[in-house]
Amino acid sequence: KPVMAVIEFDNHSGAYWWAGGVGDDLADMLTNELAATDKFKMVERAKLNSVLQEQDLAASGAVSKGTGAKIGKLTGAKYLVTGSVASYEENTKGSGGGLSFRGISVGGKKEDAYLAIDLRVIDSTTGAIEFVRSVEARSGGYGLNVGFYKGGLGGNLGKYDKTPAGKAIRAVLIEAADYLTCVMIDKDGCEE
Q1: pTM for the structure as a whole
Q2: Which residues make beta-bridge pairs with 109?
Q3: How does the average pLDDT of the chain come out, rounded?
């Protein structure tokens, strides 16, 4: 099994949902997808400081002999995987069918999201880029928007269990894991 670590993603799209920590979140999600295939040996890099602290604690003598983590036993990653969010687009359209009665309005809307990431696999020994691919996904769905307006007070209820942006993110990471499994393990014509 190839030994891999996924490192922080970048954003080049201007996606509104991107905020501090999202690059690490995407790396974590892709790590989980790749580990779930059981075709790669994934090593932790995002939380490496915690592992090193545990080793230091064991080396300090504060942990019972023979039970602590050993220094110098970390598994090295042969490949580093990273990605950049290259494009994100979202459309929200009213789909008609809205109703309003005595200050209560109910309306439907259709949401679509498109996400593309530029994926890169780097050989950690040579620094060479071994595999590169743009991976994209689309998602869509209908949501229900309910608004209550009475006496000048307003509030919108319409929280979605899974937003199109969230679905597109998950779909693109699954596609990325499928691509890496194809080109690094299966190599059976799936590259097309």
Answers
A1: 0.73
A2: 94, 143
A3: 76
